[in-house]
Amino acid sequence: MAERRPLTREELSAELHALSRRYWDKHPFHVRLHAGGCGPREIRSWVANRWYYQRHLSQKNAAIVANCPLPEIRRRWLARISYQDGRTAAEGGLHDWIVLGEAVGLSREELLDERHVLRGTRFAVDSYVAFCRTRPWLEGAAAALTELFSPQHMTARVQAWREHYDWIAPAGMAYFDSRIPVVEQDSSWTLDVVLTHSVTREQQEASIAALAFKCDVLGAILDAVDYASSCTQLGCVRFNCAQLNCPQPNGAR
Q1: Any idea where the Thiaminase-2/PQQC domain is (predicted)?
Q2: What is the tens place of the pLDDT at every residue in 182-200?
Q3: Would you call 56 helix, strand, or coil by DSSP?
């Protein structure tokens, strides 16, 4: 059987962009979140679980750098670690996410000790880090292309939160306000890297599969948070709603 031809750059780009249908902005929880349908407990749960993802971004980026033999790629990718970790503990993406946690009513202590992180979130994020450590660097880079879909989604989130959740302290929006222009630049560069270095059909299909996997990682995080939000119907045995300032014992409303 004849070997299938590689996709053109335009065809591969179209295949990658088409995966926007699997991005987590379509998830019922995010739809409800942006429509103003979430209560404080749900928003705190989302922020606390996203913290676990945020905390591991530098580790997955370091794994991509470690696997990459190209110094020009490593130099540019290292900037992601510097951005997320900051030059000091008082700056960077992690610092801004802690500020967001405090803005929605989570103490720094409960965010950092990860008491609210759900097992589904842990499995999803840990699998993403393991993927970037064990797969070729190009697949790790392709997995990061969810950033193609995120700027518009983050912009909509900021607008929705300011409209529907005026109880959230304005300082909490700093992460999104600073992140949007950065991710717009990163996504264009990363897409070019993936299109340039995915030469064979096998590499191209691996890049597409990597981005699909990352979409599933993000979706799994929301699955866990969404399931936990329904725990009032499950007796609230597992999810410790009181720790997220649920107004009544065992999360009853």
Answers
A1: 17-223
A2: 989 999 999 999 999 999 9
A3: helix
Residue 149 has phi, psi (to 5 degrees) of: -100, -10
Q: Which residues have CB under 8 Å from 200's CB, separation 6+?
A: 6
State which residues form the domain around 227. Answer: 9-251
* % of the chain residues with pLDDT over 70: 90
Report how far Cα 71 is from the mean position of its chain's Cα atoms.
26
In a domain, 1, yes or no: no
Residue 65 near residue 133, CB atoms below 8 Å: no
Cβ-proximal residues to 198 (8 Å cutoff; 6+ apart), any chain: 12, 138, 142, 204, 206, 207
Number of domains present in the structure of the chain? 1
Residue 38: DSSP 8-state: -
Categorize the per-residue pLDDT at 151 as very low, low, confident or very high, splitting at 50, 70 and 90: confident
